[in-house]
Amino acid sequence: MSDMFRLKVAKDSLQAFLTVEEKESDLSLVTEQKIISFLESRGVTFGIQGETVKNITENPELLYNENLIAVGNKPLIGNDGFLKIAITEESDANQEFNYRNVIKIPSVQTGQKIGSIIPPTSGINGKTIFNQELNAVPGKPLKLRMGKNIVEKDGQLYATIDGQLSLTENKINVFPVFEVNGDLDLKTGNITFIGNVVIRGNVPTGYSVHAGGDIKIFGMVEGADLNAGGSIYVSGGIAGSNRGKITAVGDIQASYINQGHVEAGHNIEVKSTILHSFLKAGNQVLCSSGNVIGGCCTAGVSIHTLNLGNEMHSKTEICFNVDLQLLEQEKLLTHQLDQIKTETEKLKIIAEKLTEKYRTTGSLNSQELTLLKRQKITESQLNTQELEVFEQLQEIYRAINKIEQSYLLVNGTIYPNVTITFGKYKRIINSLNKAVKIHMNNKEIVIHSINKSY
C-alpha cells in the first residue's frame, strides 16, 4: 500500500508534500492510518498536519495534487544585545523649539545609573520533519565601547561625573558641558572643548567649534567649521554660503541646510529644504517632509525625501557609494590574512617534521624541543590574529554589501535632471516620477511605485 503514495521533501527538511504515486491507484483504499504508516516508513514523524490527513481521507482525489503533509519548525534567531537607557530627556523651559526634541540632551549626575546592557538571547531550536534538532543562531552581543566618565558594573552603566550623555552608534560617554549664552563673537572666539558644547545663539561665518562630545546650537549656523566627536543639533538652519564644513561622528540634525557641506557618520536629518548642498551620511539622509534641490546627497543605506529636484530642473545628484577607504582596508586585511595563513603553514611543516623525528627516533635534542615549544606558542598567536582579521573582514564585507540594500524613497515628485548613482551604476531621470522607490536589482537601477508591491 505504501507504494501508492509519493513523498516530496524540501531541501531544508522543513516541509513534505504528499501525492498519489499512480493516477490509476484505487483511492478508496486510502485511510488515515495508511497515510501515517507511510510517513513513518519514510522517517517523517514530526509536524504531521492532522487536518490535512483528515481532508485527504475524506477527499482522496486531493492526492492528485501536492498536499503539505508535514511542517517542521525553523530555528528562531536570537535577539541581539542592546543598550537600554535608564534616563529620560529633560525639557528646557527656556526654549520653545520642539522639532523632534533634537536639542534635548539628557543631563546626568555623578553615580547616576545611565542604562543597562541587555545580553543577546540564544534563540529557539527548530526541528525537521524527521524529528532532528536544528540549532538556533544566537543573537550577537552588543559591541559597545565604554567612553569617558562611564563605569560598568554587572552590566549596569553609571556616570562618574556631572555632565551630559553623548551616544554614537557603538560608544557612550558622559561629557562636561561648555556653554555660551549668546552668539559666538570676538569675545568668545573659537571653541575647542573635550566635552559637550552648548551655544544659545548663532555661529557666524569664519568661526570654529570643536567638541569631543555633542554640539547643540539654539540659533543658526553660517559658514562656520563645526566638528563633533558625538552629534550636532541645530535648532535653526545651516546657511553655509559654500563656506565652512560641519562634521560629526554621530548624527546631524537641523531645520534646513542651504549651500552647506555636512558630513555625519550616522544620520543627517533635516526638517525642511536641503538646497544646493553637499551632504554625506554613513547611514541615512532624512528629509521626509521637505525637498532636496541641487547639490549632492550621499548615503550609505537610504535617502528619504518628499520632493527631489525642482521645476527649474536644477541639477541634483543622489549617490550610494562604497567607501573607498573600506575597499583599501579590505585589500590590506586580505593580504594580512594571506600572510598569516602562509606563516601558519610553515609552522605546521616544522611541527610535522619534528613530530616525525620524535616518532622515528624517540627523542629530540634541547634545541629542537625549544623550537617545538616556540612553534606552538607562535601558532596559537597566529590563530588568534587570523580570527581577529577574519572578523574585521566580515564587518567590512557587510558594510560593502550595504549597497545592495540601499534605496532612495521619494514620497512626492522626482523632477528631470536628477542623477542617481549606486556605486559604478548611474541613471539620469529625464521625466517626472511620483511616489517611487529606487534601488538596485540584478546590477540595474530600477524604479518602483511605492503604491504597488515590489
Mean pLDDT: 87
- Our count of helices gives 5
Question: Mind describing the biggest β-sheet?
Answer: 22 strands, mixed
Low-confidence stretches: 89-103
Secondary-structure-based class equals alpha/beta
Alpha-carbon Rg, integer = 31 Å
State the separation between the terminal residues, measured CA to CA.
46 Å
Q: Estimate the global geometry from the Cα principal axes.
A: extended
- E-strand count: 35
Helix content: 10-25%
Percent strand: 35-45%
Structure description:
This protein is of the alpha/beta class. Among the domains are: 2-71, no CATH class; 82-170, no CATH class. The chain is built from 5 helices and 35 strands. The chain has helices at 32-41, 50-58, 324-361, 366-400, 402-405; strands at 5-9, 15-20, 67-71, 82-85, 107-108, 113-118, 126-127, 133-134, 145-146, 150-153, 156-159, 163-167, 171-175, 177-180, 191-193, 196-199, 208-211, 215-217, 225-228, 232-234, 238-239, 245-248, 252-254, 257-258, 261-264, 268-270, 274-281, 284-299, 302-308, 316-320, 407-414, 418-422, 425-429, 433-440, 445-449. The strands form 5 sheets. The protein has a 22-stranded mixed beta sheet that branches. Strand 12 (163-167) and strand 13 (171-175) form a beta hairpin. The model is unreliable at 89-103 (pLDDT under 50). InterPro entries: FapA, FapA_b_solenoid, FapA_N. This is DUF342 domain-containing protein. Pfam families: FapA, FapA_N. It comes from Litchfieldia luteola.
